[in-house]
């Protein structure tokens, strides 16, 4: 028997679904109001931990096909949900950023051969890039791009040249500097060349010859975080490749509030629809997943009706990351009760932002 609940804290609602083959079901909420006991038939009882204290007077129950549905409202505490800003989106912060690295000694190892490639010992400076796709947002950051007219003379020419250099100069790390985006680590190619093999546009680990990165068009070394294992302050961690796709979606959500996406890989295309930002979910006895995106997805190109909507086309350059992202959606979809797995032609899934 499967059960699944979804908690939307911004509206204070919990939805619980229990798979049921027709046996009578009874529910009871104990005095602590943080659990619900579900009795199936005459003897089988399961206790489900709830994500919040619930109001027992708001319980609504209905049998829908093979699913028994319980709706509960969170017990009001007198506090209201602050809608002055998007607190949920503000919490979506990538890991292995400057705030993580400046606090403790760190080492990044090649994921394949476990050889250290970058460490804090000889690192002089760490900076976060303004965005994974900072160049794409230049039009939003500057209302006027400085230019230089042929008739400009004297100090005006010098001033214009300074502005041109400031705004058009490539964003390159210096020797000994680490620049961090959501999914990549950037370093100067002349900093630690003994750690890498530079193979035309590819960057390989010198110890095992595994491709771990590439060169940017400006000539910097760009290493995918998912190709590394981090040791920060004595704690080991890895980077989920699907986050590369997830963070691209974040950027579009934050910048343009787009919810419909066309993901393009090397040979696969998918349409995903994002909503329910910030949901908490749990399957059976698995741990609760917080700050989830609810995602409807299907493979293929946009339908004619979708082309007229505000849809973002995302070209996923790392095809393995797209495969990993879709595999994650499929895995979660299989864990849902069968009748919740599809909504018309869309598959239903969730992905945690933590």
Automatic annotation (TrEMBL):
GO molecular function, one term: ubiquitin protein ligase activity
GO cellular component: cytosol; nucleus; ubiquitin ligase complex
InterPro entries the record matches: UBQ-conj_enz_E2-bd_prot (IPR019193)
GO biological process: proteasome-mediated ubiquitin-dependent protein catabolic process; protein autoubiquitination; protein monoubiquitination; protein polyubiquitination
Pfam families (UniProt xref): HECT_2
Name by which UniProt lists this protein: KLLA0B03828p
Species annotation: Kluyveromyces lactis (strain ATCC 8585 / CBS 2359 / DSM 70799 / NBRC 1267 / NRRL Y-1140 / WM37) (Yeast)
